[in-house]
Automatic annotation (TrEMBL):
Name of the featured protein: histidine kinase
A single GO cellular-component term on record: membrane
Gene source species: Planobispora rosea
Residues passing through the membrane, by range: 34-53, 90-117, 124-141, 147-169
Enzyme Commission code: 2.7.13.3
Residues covered by the Signal transduction histidine kinase subgroup 3 dimerisation and phosphoacceptor domain: 202-265
Taxonomic placement: Bacteria, Bacillati, Actinomycetota, Actinomycetes, Streptosporangiales
Enzyme class name: transferase
Length: 404
């Protein structure tokens, strides 16, 4: 299919088919091309054979003329195999042949059809016009005993018009196929760019959030280090505790810094924190905020060891819940929304949001928010799923790892 689409692309206006012969790449014939060429050759040969039988029965023609007609017709039928390489040249060469050889008439029709399929309208009109101009001369040289001059002229011109229009319709259909194929490729490329842009923006946002957490840790380190500097007479136990806090904070800060480097792949652009970053304890306030906006939100918080939730885990869980409630408010504003947050150290943290969907309702929107949430969960080593649940409601489910 790809090879045929590549070849059909030559048929587009300004394509390679319309380019000079030296600029056209040679394309090997496919199995389909061989079958089509064989069928057209057999049709041309069959028309020529019928004409040859008729010539043999026409005793008014001298025998040398009949023999010459058949020989010229055989050569014309054999030349049909060149129709893909030189379609216009072959068609023009067969125009005068049709005046002297009835057997070569089928080859002339095949050449005209080829030009109408593979060349622009001006070439097809030129070849068709020359063939029609030779029809009166042919009827004068070889009148049909069963038809009058006018009737024969009308029949032959009509046949040439039918062949030309048929070829042009085939060309138009192939151009449509190529156009639709290119449009589909362009739409797929644009969709990939949108997804990549959403991922890039989400990574930048995550990096900004992690920048705030890192700044907070470094501030704590500075406070404890300053206490050691200004209070050298502190008791040994207090010094040991401060050193432990500094050591643990430095280790966590180093981990955060590595995560920032891994997430932010766009260079060293300076970022500014937008606002203090949320934690898991802020989910209650988020639910209350949604209720104040008119939503019917039910929050079921079943988390073991809420005080031990890591900052990064709580921040990502909050962002997932926030985006889920935002989607529910957009697409099911008046419907009740249930949110369940459960888990504990070693089991991970699960965030599930359900909201009803009307029958036949499609999930609207560009989907970039959900793409960003998926990227956020995967960067943390978790997973996120969304879609229509078996009960007909829309379900957003995320699982995030929580080390014991």
């Amino acid at each position: 299919m790809t090879q045929h689409v590549t070849e059909y692309r030559w048929l587009l206006p300004g394509g390679l088919r319309d380019a000079p012969p030296k600029e056209r790449p040679r394309v090997r014939r496919s199995t389909r091309d061989w079958i089509v060429d064989t069928v057209i050759f057999l049709l041309a040969a069959g028309i020529g054979l019928l004409a040859a039988v008729e010539i043999q029965g026409n005793l008014d023609l001298p025998k040398p003329v009949r023999i010459a007609d058949q020989l010229i017709g055989v050569v014309s039928c054999a030349s049909v195999w060149l129709r893909r390489r030189w379609p216009v040249g072959l068609a023009l060469a067969l125009v005068p042949v049709s005046l002297v050889s009835e057997v070569g008439g089928g080859a002339g029709v095949a050449a005209l059809f080829t030009v109408a399929v593979h060349r622009p309208f001006k070439h097809a009109a030129l070849v068709a016009g020359l063939n029609m101009a030779t029809v009166p001369v042919y009827l004068v040289m070889r009148p049909d005993p069963e038809l009058s001059f006018r009737a024969g002229l009308a029949v032959m011109i009509l046949a040439l018009l039918v062949v030309t229009i048929w070829g042009m319709l085939v060309r138009a259909r192939r151009q449509l196929v190529v156009s639709l194929h290119e449009r589909a490729e362009r739409a797929e490329t644009e969709a990939e760019l949108r997804v990549e842009g959403a991922r890039r923006l989400e990574r930048e946002r995550i990096a900004r959030e992690m920048h705030d957490v890192l700044a907070h840790r470094l501030s704590l380190l500075s406070v404890h280090a300053g206490a050691l500097e200004y209070r050298p007479d502190m008791p040994p136990d207090d010094v040991a505790k401060a050193a432990e806090v500094i050591r643990s904070g430095a280790h966590q800060a180093l981990q955060d810094l590595r995560e920032v480097i891994g997430v932010l792949r766009l260079g060293a652009e300076e970022t500014v924190p937008d606002r203090p970053q949320p934690t898991l304890s802020d989910l209650t306030g988020l639910a209350e905020e949604s209720r104040a906006a008119g939503m019917d939100v039910t929050l079921d918080l079943k988390v073991t060891g809420k005080e031990e939730v890591p900052a990064r885990l709580g921040r990502n869980a909050y962002r997932i819940a926030q985006e889920g409630l935002t989607n529910a408010r957009k697409h099911a504003a008046a419907a009740p929304v249930s949110m369940v947050v459960a888990g504990g150290p070693g089991d991970g943290l699960t965030v599930e949001i359900h909201n009803p969907m009307t029958e036949g309702q499609a999930i609207p929107g560009s989907g970039t928010g959900l793409i960003g949430l998926t990227e956020r969960a995967e960067l943390m080593g978790g997973r996120l799923e969304y879609g229509r649940a078996p009960d007909g409601r829309f379900r957003l489910s995320a699982w995030l790892p929580w080390a014991a």
